[in-house]
Amino acid sequence: MVQQNQNPMIPTACKILSIVKETDIEYTFRVESPFQANHGQFMQLSIPKIGEAPISISELGDNYMDFTLRAVGKVTNEIFEKQVGDFLFLRGPYGNGWPYEELKGKHLVFITGGTGLAPVRSLLNEFYNNMDLVKSITLISGFKNKESILFKDELKNWQEKFRTFYTLDNDKIEGWNSGLVTNFVKEIDFNSFDNNYAVIVVGPPIMMKFTGLELKKHDIPDENIWMSFERKMSCAIGKCGHCRIDETYICLDGPVFPYTKAKNLVD
Amino acid sequence: MGYKFNFADADRLFCNIFDKYDIYAPKKFPKQGRYSDTDIIKYAKINSINEIEFHIKSDYSAKEVLNPINETLFYFIENEFRESSAPKKPILLFARPCDINAIEIQSKIFEENGEFSDIYFTRIKNNLKFVLMDCNGGDDTCFCVSMNSNFTDNWAIAIKQLENEYLLSIKDSEFTSDFENCEQTDFSPEFVQQNTLSVNIKEIPNKEVLNKLKEHPFWLEYDKRCISCGSCTVSCPTCTCFTTRDIIYSENPKVGERKRVYASCQIEGFDQMAGQKEIRNKASERMRYKVLHKYHDYKERFKTKHMCVGCGRCIHRCPEAISIVSTLEKMNNAIDEILNKDIQE
Amino acid sequence: MNKDIDIKKLRLNCYRQSKEVGKFMLQMRVPGGFIDAKYLSIVQHIAQTYGDGNFHFGTRQTFNITGIPYENIPEVNKYLEQYIEEVETCLCDVNMNTIAGEEAYWEPQSGYPTIGARNITACIGNYHCICGNINTFELARKIESIIFPSHYHIKINISGCPNDCNKAHMCDFGIIGVARMEYHPERCIACGACVKACEKGATRVLSLNENLGRIEKDACCCVGCGECVRACPTSAWTRQETPFYRVIIGGRTGRQTPRAGKMFLNWATEDVILNTLKNWQKFSAYVMDNKPEYLHGGHLIDRAGYKKFKEIILDGVKLNPECLVAENIFWDETEYRSNFNVKPINLHK
Fold first, then answer.
1. Which CATH architecture has domain A100-262?
2. pLDDT the model gives residue A2
3. Which phi and psi angles does B285 have, rounded to 5°?
4. Domain contains B58
5. If you measure CA to CA, which chain B residue comes closest to C231?
């Protein structure tokens, strides 16, 4: 395996170990990785001569990382052409990641919209395998329709140990709820958590905004809420300027923010 | 103490320096302006001191020498990478105080933001010395005094061009011997004490006021006026934003490069993520983003001066005659309005 | 009213017959339509002292003073001496003692000697306009001494850019200022502003090559307007230092066969333009056998045929390397008399 480069802009070639087709347009790539990362961090993924994009880590192993991505642009489209044994080019990890130590020992509520499930997947699996690390886990996970459901096997597994609310925005299938994730916040008895809980919200900007407001309706303190942001980035090391909101750089100071800060991040 | 020599002797006196350094300075390019029969002054490598434009402010700033518009980061050769090489020679950069101060702002972002220092910026900066160009006070778009960037002591040589001769002062002993046989005279650089233009930047006391200011209707004027061309940020000596871009060499598709290119928060697509809506898709929002960065956000992050040296290039280059100084006056009024309303409530 | 007036002679003297017998309109030349505003007082003086007090902007940018009685004309001509001297001789370096390049005595107090070569019109050009590629009136002043005084008719319109506000397409010899562009890829941020500007305001010759991060240009169809330069935030597009010109010939209005002109030269330098026009008298003389008629240049080109025109007008002209010359011209007329082109030659006279 190629050694990591001194120059933080130069990526390392990493071999693709497996490719899982989650949906028609979302694949999970498992890539051999020499990097030490935390849950909720992201990497810069690139294909030489095509370009580079920030992608959150959707699973962490001893020698591998997963990336779940959607073919929506020049870089991701090209990545979708790759096969097992081909190389993806990685640099990172970047960003702060989830406040793992702070989350341990708490009742955790995860609220995710669409591909927002990817950045919390490794954390969910970590706790799934070590339920003694937390008091309880509630997962509200929404997708647009049945075609866009990700991590189907894991969703099923998680039901064993987590309290789950799986919902489709505007579609109906058996065993699934219908409606937006915000509708299910009222189902959670936050009082039973004895003020020892954290809510983790990830999804498209509009979903995070309304989930934040919904949580405030239930008087959830700002400090108990965490959100992960996604912004355009070219460097991921605080130079290129694309991800800046006010004095905050998402790549350096985020992507995970407590709601005390997140609520003031107005683009 | 200083030296005096005439135009004809300049290149002879600088010949050792030319040997050792690449000299970059503002130079006039006749008829290359935006409108026909107008000139452009931009930074270029020069071969004679007499090529330098001393009296008219350059349209584009000195930042282009440290932070080129297009810069190769590394080359791809099949699956391998080769970092682009640093300039072979050290650089001597002729600049006015505003531009020298601006490089210090660039350095904050390139070298102090986050744990990594930008190797491309640093490898040039660490091998560069400034020649301070005497500034006659600039033009009617300058407001360096208001931004506290009229002064600098970051220079090795200071120079002033008179009608037939140069005055020179040397701070860096490396250059003393080159001029020791010159006629001596009293010369030390003077700094502009007053501009015709001045600004006063109101403090934004907290996030609540900041976010109210973002919503203030005065920005909407720029939806009608600003054409989102990015001329202001390209010419701005403190703007650093870039986008990386991969190139395939058409003659050999196995070989290519990753380069970085100036990005502008004023140009459509700056915050556009693939497959998503653009976040700031109106000129007013882009303008607000830029102005607040310059006169609030940067200072808030680095706890230092504002991210503007008052060089006035954004005013000078704007094809729609938008003046940042008027924008700031409007912003000050909006801040007052927000604060007064808060008191009343 | 019983008056015996040589109307034709007065026309040559730039006095135009009016509906009212014995009243005339003076047309004062303003080459390029641009002149020191102080001359407006001369216009005012003539109008109020000798005319009916009114003034018209001539359609060819002359100062037109209406209602001048026949008997005032000698006085007006005397008064005009200074204006003609300052504008024609001093500003434009015209030799007033010639006609069509041949020596001919001119009495300074006799007014304008010829009307054939019409006032050269021009848009304001880059003296003011942000689109202009050339200084139009300076060119007009250089051409004035080549075409005036002459009894051969020619209408020259100069436009500062291919937007052609001054309708170079609607005169005998239209000149359009164009620019050849230089692209500096090291300054290009691939923002696409030039591509959009060219799409919106020109001929869509630019495109962004995503693989190279560069702009590509179909130089063949570039009209040389300079919109890309105006749109570029980084000066990645600049104009070459030398100005260039496009020449449109044979455009005209008229009762019979109005038509827009066609391109004769493209990317010609100023020298080429001036040297070409120096052959104008020779070409006119050839077509009309040295006997000037009231026939404009476009008709002369029709009579001689384009090939002959090209041969004579470019005689001895050294073309700059960039300059392109039309191989042939295919006219497209609006024919108000459908048999115009099949009329027997003897009926043309």
1. 3-Layer(aba) Sandwich (3.40)
2. 41
3. -70, -35
4. yes
5. B229
Nearest to C233 among B32, B68, B229 (CB): B229
Locate the chain B residue with the closest alpha carbon to C126: B36
CA distance B142 to chain A (A): 26
What separation in angstroms does the CA of B61 have from each of B96, B161, C47, C69?
10, 20, 56, 65
Answer yes or no: do B175 and B219 share one domain.
no
Q: Which residues share a beta bridge with C183?
A: C237
CB A43 within 8 Å of CB A37? yes
B300 contacts in A (CB within 8 Å)? Answer: 246-247
Which of B65, B70, B250 to substitute to test the interface with C, most C CBs within 10 Å?
Answer: B70
User: Does B60 contact C235 at a Cβ distance shorter than 8 Å?
Assistant: yes
Note down the domain range covering B314.
Answer: 207-344
Dihedral angle of Cα B182, B187, B191, B194, to the nearest 10 degrees: -120
Closest partner CB to B261 (pick from C135, C182, C190): C190
CATH of the structural domain C121-173+243-348, one choice from 3.40.50.11540, 3.40.50.880, 3.40.50.970, 3.30.413.10: 3.30.413.10
Which among A39, A36, A155 has a CA at the least distance from the CA of A103? Answer: A39
β-partners of residue C57 are C63
Phi and psi at residue C174, to the nearest 5°? -95, 140
Select the residue of B33, B34, B69 nearest C189 (Cβ to Cβ).
Answer: B69
Chain B residues touching residue A11 (CB < 8 angstroms): 81
Q: What is the ipTM of this complex?
A: 0.94
All chains having 3 or more CB pairs closer than 8 angstroms to chain A:
B
Query: Which residue of C126, C186, C234 is in closest CB contact with B36?
Result: C126
Q: Are C146 and C278 contacting, i.e. CB atoms less than 8 angstroms apart?
A: yes
* Among the four given CATH numbers 3.30.2000.10, 2.40.30.10, 3.30.420.10, 3.40.50.720, the one describing domain A12-94: 2.40.30.10
Instruction: Tell me which amino acid residue C60 is.
Output: R
Q: What is the pLDDT of residues C290-347, one digit of tens each?
A: 888 888 889 999 999 999 999 999 999 999 999 999 999 999 888 776 666 666 667 6
Fold (CATH) for C7-92: Sulfite Reductase Hemoprotein; domain 2 (3.90.480)
- Compute the distance between CA of residue B214 and CA of residue B331 in angstroms, rounded to an integer: 10
CB contact under 8 A, B34 and C232: yes
pLDDT in tens, B127-180: 999 999 999 888 999 999 999 999 999 999 999 999 999 999 999 999 999 999
DSSP string, C36-63: -GGGHHHHHHHHHHTS-S-EEE-TTS-E
Instruction: Give the helix ranges, DSSP H, for chain C.
Output: 7-12, 40-49, 73-84, 136-147, 193-201, 227-231, 270-277, 280-287, 297-304, 306-313, 345-348
Helix (H, G, I), strand (E, B) or coil at B294: helix
Q: Rounded CA gap, B165 and B54, in Å?
A: 12
Q: What share of chain B is helix, strand, coil (3-state, %, to 5)?
A: 35, 20, 45
Where does chain A hold its CATH 3.40.50.80 domain(s)?
Answer: 100-262
The token pair at C83 is 């204006």
* Best CA proximity match to A225, nearest among A199, A203, A188: A199
What residue type is A198 in one-letter code? A
Q: Do B248 and C243 touch (CB under 8 A)?
A: no
Helix, strand or coil, per DSSP, at residue B205: coil
